[in-house]
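haha ok so turns out i had the wrong file open the whole time. this is the CORRECT one, sorry everyone. sequence first:
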Amino acid sequence: MSRKVFDYEIVKNRVSVIVPLFGDFDRTRFYLALQSLGNQKGIDLEVVIAEQSGSPSIDVSQLEINVKYLHVPSNNLVDGKYFRPGFVRNLAAKNSNGEYLYNTDGDIIFTNPNFLVNSLRIFKTGLYRPPMRRLPLENFQEFFEENMKNGLGNAIANLSIEHPYLATSKKNPIKMKVFEKHEEERKKIFLYTEGDHKKYLSDPSNKGKEPVFSTLHTHAGAILMKREHFEIVGGYCEQFAGWGCHDADLQWKLREIFKIEEFPNDSKFEVLHLDHERSYFSKERWSKNIEIQNRRRTQGIIKSIEEDLQ
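then structure:
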């Protein structure tokens, strides 16, 4: 990532939301995520979509919100098959102009229309990992049909949020199993639907493939930060490929240099994960990403930032 990161005059108080799209990820979920962004209130919002795929698939003219759209060809994949999330997100940042950057994903719904404005009100040096509920795969079609019939707000309001970490259909409630584990010097909460947990246990070869079956109780990749801070730490490391670690690596740099904080565990900051099949996960590539992450942590923050600024 070059030192001259940003190509536009910066607009004060604007939030540039980066939404990447990779390969054949479900466009229905992606458009719902964009719809929820369009519902954000009281904020100067810029949405930047960066799609890495064989050919462009987003017709910007059909969207109800204004977006910047970038297409990244798939001819520069790692090992010919792994997407480059750090490169794609950095490219989107270069083509945005907000004073603040918010990185999200195409499977995330902002259930509170005031999410971003509330986030700026408590912003000090940065926020990451907002609390998250899961909409189980089994409930998605009903949720989508309610959205088409009565709008996204009603579809969200009709979900049952009686149990922690879960947003499920009242007609077809799905149960969740919750596991706590200490990793990376912090407590992590892993969530499995009962069906996914049974699948996971049914085959010993699933060990090491936990991200196919579970999620965390927070949106692990979400970061709200000052643009200048993003630039100082070198943006996303572009050595990671496929799923995992690129977001945690940036959070580590921002935590070490600017002391960013986790979002409060408060319902007004909750987001909703639209569960989907995770065929993109590679155990082999995840292991490689963890090797890169461990090497960077061992060599230290300064050398890692220097690498990313080259």
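The two ends are 6 Å apart (CA to CA).
again sry for the mixup
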